[in-house]
User: What shape does this take?
Amino acid sequence: MLNLFQLVLQIAVVLVAARIVGFLFQKIKQPQVMGEMVAGILLGPSLLGWLAPGVSAALFPPASLSYLNALSQVGLVVFMFVVGLALNPSELHGYGHAAVLTSHVSIAAPFCLGSLTALYLYPRLSDDSVTFTHFALFMGAAMSITAFPVLARILSERGLVRSRMGTLAIACAAVDDVTGWCILAYIVVLVRVTHAARPAWITIAGSLVYVLLMLFVVRRILPAFERAFRKRERLTDNLLAVIVVLVLVSALATEWLGIHLLFGAFLMGAIMPKAPEFTRYLLHKFESVTVVLLLPLFFAYTGLRTRIGVGGGRGIWLYSALVIVVAVAGKLGGSMFAARLAGMPWREAGALGVLMNTRGLMELVILNIGLDIGVISPAMFSIMVLMALVTTFMTTPLLEWVYPTRLFRAPVDEIHRNVA
Amino acid sequence: MKNNLVAAYLLMVGLPVFGLLGILEAGRGIPAPLSITGDWTFKLDPATQCGNGGARQPALNISQSGTEALISLNDGNGHATTLEGTVNGNLLTAKSPVAGISAVIAGKPGARTLEGTIQFDGCAPAAFRAVRQAPKKGGE
Assistant: This one.
């Protein structure tokens, strides 16, 4: 039964922790979101549960977590809509061969290395309820993701959005985002279809029909919102409610089809009209509550599921180190060499590699999906969360070292400031 | 320059894709530990006499990562304990300061059973049989 006092107390504690740790991380020139992610981990068994198990058990009893989870999932649905909204398809082309080569390598290299690592980790951290193919494909997808919003924020804060490296990074991250979510959707379908009562053809054919409907029917209706916005420079509350309902219906459709709620929300955002003023307006409307209130709940819920250094036996730290090294080598190394081969100077190619290596909260979203569908074990989840934290944390100092701001400052792009 | 890019593309994208296919093929034969994750219905031998005289019907939940397992055991009288266990082939052994389990894992992943003995602190070992409930996760 819902204990409202406990839930409100949990939310208050999570928000206070997120703001304090986020503030401290900003002081060391890390993105606020990095601090919020760490705050979530600190509230979980990795720190609070370890230092003060009584307090942890009283504040976050296992039976109460389903409500926190439900709230965080609603937040994620809105957040994925925002991510899709901020994704501009015009960023996906126009950068020539360098963007094509770099973006494809930045997916293929870490994907292959992630799957290769699965050969070693599968018998140690998985079990026979998961096939090797599912485990390896998931590891590959999780290794190849880039946190587009965090990357955009870092570029914006450093005034690099309009630099050649910045525009290429955004194009590559956008390609990575779309490709990564498509691959993940495929893997989720693959895993769920294997075990679902519903015939596979319904999921596959239904997904195809859904995507076609979204691209060729719904997308043609959506410009009506933009026209309404242009008339009054704002949208009425009723129209905003209609947009929210459309996001929810799209999310429900993908969940019913056996993919996942988040894919529907993301696709709805991706097909929204992309006029800058309209996008900025919607981002402003949807971002505040999501970023300030709901995302910290997701980080906290993730943190409560994460037991860093626990499970997986004595080799847990060795596995963690291996995963981090492979993730960095595949993403940073792959992107850097591809950009260099495409003609970028070493310094810019290195900076691009560092940026593409940012996994941030997109990685946490994917890992939570993986844990929910049972394709990764709790220990594997914790290792991957640690990898996401390390690769995100290392981005800012490494970028400053490889590509110092004083040398390359350029005008700050307002849209990307808002997006992040 | 264009030829170089094509060559680079084939090398850096084509090769990993072919590599991936090889990895998936190579991994098919790799054995993984038997899965015991989830909630279990747990039946103690009715002859068990300990504490309040056989009233105990423990509830069992297992969280597994590879060969390592965390077993949450509620003894039916409101006392819960967590046992740290290991899956070795088809054998599960687990212990905590107040209880120990030794059991054989049998059946397919969808219909798995545990049969063995459980020993609470101060009691004689008791035979038990546990059947895994339908998993909540989609991976199984």
In short: The CA atoms of residues 94 and 124 of chain B lie 16 Å apart.
